Amino acid sequence: MTKDSIATILLSVLIYLVLYGVLQRFDKPNEVIEKTRVEVAPAYELPSIRIPDEVTFAGEKVPLEDPDVWERLDRELHVNTFWHSNTIFLLKRGNKWLPEIEKVMEEYGMPGDLKYLAVIESDLTNVVSPRDAVGFWQLLKGTAKDFDLEVDNEVDERYDPIRATHAACGYLRKAYEKFGTWTNATASYNIGMRGLQRRLEEQEVDSYYDLLLNEETSRYVFRAIAVKMIFENPTAYGFKLSEDQLYSREKLKEVKVTESISNLRQFAFDQGINYKILKRHNPWLRKNELTVKRNKTYTILVPDV
What we know:
This protein is mainly alpha-helical. Helices cover about 50% and strands about 5% of the residues.
């Protein structure tokens, strides 16, 4: 027998053994599937999503008797319920930031539900959009300056979640005075006051719920409502997070700065921290220096240990 013949026989035997193993593996597919189902199912329960008979946002009734309104809210509830990883981190960050944001809104006499706009705008992170909108409230530079935020090369208060909330409250209050409802004011936060006014006039209606809008704005208010519903009753939508799993604010103290700082890294060392910690608590500091003009005072946050 030649070497080629021996090699051919060995190869045939090997192929037979591989095929036999594969066939044995799939000989009882139902048993394998059932075992998988038994192992996985108890750990993963899909919540049954039901919309209550009455839903409000910012103290205003959502007209669920309109089938289109009901379906649009149903869509956003499902999207945000089953976008698990994202919504889990919204809940975690929300515990850290939303109480502080709501305090600011109380100062302006505004409904607390409006805090959820920061959630849908930025996921409560200091992101920058393709249009250069910045921070938790996604403020454009011009809008930020209109509502008394400082924006320059060294300081950009859009990155300060609390200062930015003051600016957002100023905008929303102005929009409410213009449009008469918090729902319309919310919609204008996405499309702009002029944009909303133009569409209300063109379509001869006075409510966001009656408008035909672009995809983003038509979903905007409904996403805020859906997020509100999930935050107010997370277990109903399958989110069971214990208190120790949520994020919380660290204990901080204020350092008043009335003179320019040429090196913020060194300033951080002088406070007993490093540059990363300094920037984490003060993301509005955009460079390694801070110029303090006459009669100006900045408040820098550092850990209170």
